[in-house]
Amino acid sequence: MNKSFKTMIKVFFLETFKNKIEVFFTLFFPVLFLVIFGFLFTQNNIVKTYTYGISGTINDDVKNYFKPNKILIYENEEKLKEAVNNNKVDYGIYMNNNEVKYYYVSNMNSNIQWIKYGANSGVKKYLLKLKKDYISVDEKLIKLGKTQTNPMEYLLTGIIAISILSGGMFSVINVFGRYKKLGIIKRFMVAPVKPYQFVISASFNKLILNFASIFFIIILGKMWFNLSFQFNWFLLIIVGLSTTIGMMGVGILILVLFKETESANTASSILFTIMMFFAGIYFPISFIPGYLRWLSYILPVKYVVDIIRYVAGVESMNILVFWFINIIFILSGTLLLIIASKNFVKESK
Prior knowledge:
This protein is an alpha/beta fold.
């Protein structure tokens, strides 16, 4: 590695971290998704309980039929209605022999249907003296990968793919597009710098930033949501390298197709949105209507998500398919970087 090449890498490294927009979209934009969807998924996994007020001719063991909900016992019907009106309980139940009355404040709780269901279930079990629910379900979970995962772990692997897409595609468009617009590439070409040195030195720093983003997301996921991944770290490095190169190639290709940086940014934003919703990042591809599913299989991010979930132990995959996908990303990305960037640099001379 000659001195000028080292100097270029250093210059690009300093420039990368001076560009706050690029750092945001590579490091913090995926974290924003992690926070928003992470806490949403976490809240959905929490079993909600409600407070029921009960009065009437009831036995002391009535509370056992409404578990795990909280039960407050009232002396008479009037005090029960007063508790409901004052929002001390979510739902009031008055039982007098086989007569049952329900009291609740209309439209005060968005979960009223679930509260009603819990009340009906508890009352029926109490009146029939059933110790268990009417239907007993024995769940047996089937592992798709090495470990049993939850929706949050499935989501985080998708967010890593978003990070690679954002860091690879947007950073290349931002740097090369901005350099072309500011005439910086022309200045580089006056110096004894070969086109491949320019591309490699710029791409090297994007690789480093992308790897930082990947590990940053994994660490935050473990800290905030106690996720238990079993990453194959060697394969994760291979995936990070191959997919970042592939996404860089996509970014360069967009820059070549759309001459103006603003047009390239618009096109990449549209493509980014399509990939987010059709690549199986937030939900399985099987959820997508059949007549649109073909779109998922032509999007490169879909395969980024697949191999990341494989190295995380979330999903299984044939090892030959894994290596084939990585080789395709490396070869196609490198080819696009070489061919497209040469044409791009020539236009800037």
